[in-house]
Amino acid sequence: MATVFTNTGKAKLVDALDNTQLTRPTYIGWGTGSTAAAATDTGLETASSEARTNGTPSQVTTTVAGDTFQVVGTITSTSSQTISEAALFDASTSGNCYVHGVFTDIALGNGDSIAFTVKIVVA
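Request: output the structure for the sequence above.
Response:
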């Protein structure tokens, strides 16, 4: 899976460090786009109709204590579709895209769900 920490996400992290950005990215959205993720991405290539989910944020350890910001959330499909991308945002609609990933197609039926875990590791 190709996943990138976007340029906007990097800038917002610096904003948080200098106390000018107070909105945490906790909203996960999904879509059907297939173009490789890039640092210049500002959102999903092709967002699906389901609302973004407000995930549960936490601080976890990847390499050293507390070095990873993690958001876990589940989205349920309202139709038959194939999901191939996900992104982390700081708003339920519009907002800033912090992380964007494209992955192998996952075919879903109406009522099927995907549980996403998005991590930003500060290494």
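The radius of gyration is 14 Å.
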